[in-house]
């Protein structure tokens, strides 16, 4: 490869990397990216789309005992920050393209994370509900009740967890 071609390739590659790093850095700073590395629920309201959910959480009974991350990220450092990064990317994508669902809904993978969080904090209640008295079946063998089917607005504004949408998503 001639020296001139290598120089053009190196400059083009350098400019492309510089633009990507510059845009990424600007976006991270503009979107208050470092706030998402902490557990402060106010970070979830950086995007005005989430103001209603944030305000609902502040007025809910869960306000005193749980943050957004307690319900919406799995336990463990890597799973937590992988989920936060994935959700952050997709939230940004949907917001930027204007294709976010209204009302905002949990994606299926996030629904599992939230369901597991409910079950972890409320284990004794879940066990009492799912353990039938002798001779009674409340849940088919091998199946679990889904907390979010009935408790779809816990921690958020009443009605924000549209039960009909939730039933359709669970059925998928």
Automatic annotation (TrEMBL):
What are the alphabetically sorted keywords of the record?
A: Cell membrane, Electron transport, Heme, Iron, Membrane, Metal-binding, Oxidoreductase, Transmembrane, Transmembrane helix, Transport
Q: Which family does it belong to?
A: Belongs to the NapC/NirT/NrfH family.
Query: What Gene Ontology biological process does one annotation of this record name?
Result: anaerobic respiration
Q: What is this protein called?
A: Cytochrome c-type protein
One term of GO molecular function: heme binding
Start and end residues of each NapC/NirT cytochrome c N-terminal domain: 13-157
Main subcellular localisation: membrane
Q: Which residues bind heme 2?
A: 68-69, 71-72, 156
Q: Which domain of life is it from?
A: Bacteria
Subcellular location(s) per record:
Cell membrane
Give one Pfam hit by family name.
Answer: Cytochrom_NNT
Annotated residues for binding of heme 1: 44, 47, 50
Q: What kind of modification does the protein receive after translation?
A: Binds 4 heme groups per subunit.
Q: Which cofactor does it need?
A: heme
This entry carries the following GO cellular component terms, namely: plasma membrane
Q: Where does a menaquinol bind?
A: 80
Membrane-protein topology: Single-pass membrane protein
Q: Summarize where heme 3 binds, as residue positions.
A: 63, 118, 121-122
InterPro entries for this protein: Cytochrome_c-type_ET, Multihaem_cyt_sf, NapC/NirT/NrfH, NapC/NirT_cyt_c_N, NapC/NirT_cytc_sf, NrfH
Cross-referenced NCBIfam families, in alphabetical order?
cytochr_NrfH
